[in-house]
Task: structure prediction
Amino acid sequence: MSKIRDLLESGVRGKIYSGAAYQIGTKDAVLENGCVGTLGEERAPVSLDALFDLASVTKPLVALAFMKQMEEGKVCLDDCAGRYMPEYRNSDKSNITMRQLLTHTSIIPGQVQLYRSCHNRQEILEAIRFLPPRAVEAQPVMYSSQGMILLGEILCRIEDMPLDQIMDKYVFQPLGMTETCYNPPQYLHARIASTEFCRWRGYRLLGEVHDENAFVMGGICGHAGLFSSVADMAKIGQMCLSGGFLPQPLMKLMTKNHTRGLNEARGLGWQCRDASGSPAGDLFSEVSYGHTGYTGTSIWIDPYYGIYAILLTNRVYYFREAMEFSHLRRCFHNLAVLGNVS
Result:
């Protein structure tokens, strides 16, 4: 048994999640993959084609669609929200730039439970417009799903089509990601890992987005909602390492640290590697980047070592406060480097 598999099996035994799938690879080859546990209690074992709720790993994929729009000359980083959202003009959110939304440096505050007072997509967007601005001086970078909700809506305004169609057009079809989608259809549910018993909704979630704000928005938005498999996510890792999908200047722009010297390291839609406390563990290089998801998902890419690592779990299955997961994920990333970089 590999060290990684042994580590992930310990997570099943410790009820950190019911199941997990993983893959480590290069631009040319899969170095190691596997799966452990089950899709949920009294459900089938996890297989390599299992689908997981990506949660916030949705964000960098939506950012890729933004970069493709940028490649077509439709948008620039310093464009303001008011340019695309007429209803945001004459508000304190009008001058927020695309760069600020992608790097989490706008005045839009962090994790706000809008679903408690909003009932649909339009109400969420209106609520964001009226959110009290945060003090950027006190905390220059503040992770904001609300900011990515706004970015997703701006993509729709630019393209004049729904976000799921935009993602198909710009990301999934070009990369051959045939199983990545919002609101997976019923026939796929037998392969989808269950997440938590949602007290707010009153039932165990299966094939339905875990994030409550995303649920209110119909499951299709810029910050969460995508479901995917390790094989499909590997296509993102391979693309980032091999190039070709985005012109090199755009790829460099997207993945560099735009917030150097601030409280968090952020690319455009990507997390960069923080000096300490990074979910990438201790061994991924300083030029590595990736993203994590609240449900227990992550992708991390290292152009220096030439590897990517994908871990998909349902760490919210038993309870949300599975704090041991953060330690397990860092150990996973350490083992990914130690076992595959000479």
